[in-house]
Amino acid sequence: MKVIRIALAVAMLAVAAPPVGAETQRDGARDVALGSQVSWSGEANPQPVRYRFGDINVSVRPRVDAQFEDLVAPVVTLEVPGRAPVVLEGADTRPSYEHEIGVGRLDRNGTRFLILQSFTGGAHCCNAIQIALIPAAGPVTLVDLGAWDGGPAEEMPKDEDGDGVVDFVQRDDRFLYAFSSYAGSFAPPQIINIVGGWVVDVSERPSFRRFFLEAMNDAREGCRDGFERNGGCAGYVAAATRAGRFDEAWRDMLRHYERTSTWGLEDACRVGVDNPDACPADQRVRFSGYPDALRYYLTEWGYLPR
To answer: 170 and 153, same structural domain?
Structure first.
């Protein structure tokens, strides 16, 4: 199980149009069911708005960028009884862009969480996800879940495998552009938990194999008949590995990969360097071809054992 240190940083939050099933307003705040999320944009909400998720209050006001007046960010205040208020700030975006906010139960220990999904705009980018952890007792802490390709998810994350912990189902964006253009790439699922203040990659658990089997089947045609087959083959083999069907997919890849493509076959470095030319000679990795490079990255990224 791969563990990634979280960033305890200022998060961002947002809200707006009334969700389906919202109750009538009282005290100027809209009641929203726990486990639901609402949308907020600067265009739809030029004035501050307030939401109440049970005993949790969330207020949102727009902040216009001081330098670029066509950009607006949500400024969110989270109020929980008995705790100090927490202020979070979302991304500067065009006023029409929607940010999603929801509050739900994170685990069986009584921890709740607030999620902000903030679409930053730009080509193939990005859904920046921030989490506020609200334990049964003690202070609220903020977790940066990172920025992921695509826009906000329409539904709240949920416990997918029945172990009592909410699963954040994303895509492994390391596969984008790795062996082909964006259009030819296939990013397999990546499943995240937040446990004890840590962000944990739990993708290898057998209980999630159905996600990877579906992804494997989706990527197979891209490997066999795609216009940039090496991008499809990489995602296909990765998903198949998580689904317990590596050998089958590897044989398929060997039959169909593009022999003439050199995308992704540049030398790699076993240690992190800002400039590839600065890689020490004894740490440089040279690839004999696509299968060699694919196996190397599947190992580096935790899909295959070392």
So the answer is: no
Q: Summarize pLDDT for 4-15 with one digit per residue, the tens.
A: 444 333 333 333
pLDDT value for 121: 79
Q: Final residue of a domain: which of 157, 180, 208?
A: 157
The H or E element containing residue 293 is helix 290-300
Angle, helices 209-225 vs 229-242, to 10°: value is: 160
Instruction: Give the other-Cβ count within 10 Å of 21's Cβ.
Output: 9
Q: How many domains does the chain have?
A: 2
**Tens of pLDDT, residues 20-49:** 444 445 678 899 999 999 999 999 999 999
On whether both 29 and 148 belong to a single domain, the answer is yes
Burial of 41-67, coded b for 16+ CB within 10 Å and e otherwise, reads bbeebeeebbbbbeebbbbbbbeeeee
Averaged pLDDT for residues 189-206: 95
Q: Are residues 57 and 129 in the same domain?
A: yes
Query: Residue 101 sits in which domain range?
Result: 2-157
The answer to whether residues 149 and 129 touch, using CB atoms and an 8 Å cutoff, is: no
Kindly state whether residues 228 and 89 are assigned to the same domain.
Answer: no
Give me the pLDDT at residue 61, please: 95
Among 157, 174, 192, residue at a domain's last position: 157
Task: Confirm if 235 and 36 have CB atoms less than 8 A apart.
Answer: no
Amino acid identity for residue 120 in this structure: T
Give the C-alpha separation, 202 to 190, whole Å: 8
**Per-residue pLDDT tens over the stretch 88-116:** 899 899 999 999 999 999 999 999 999 99
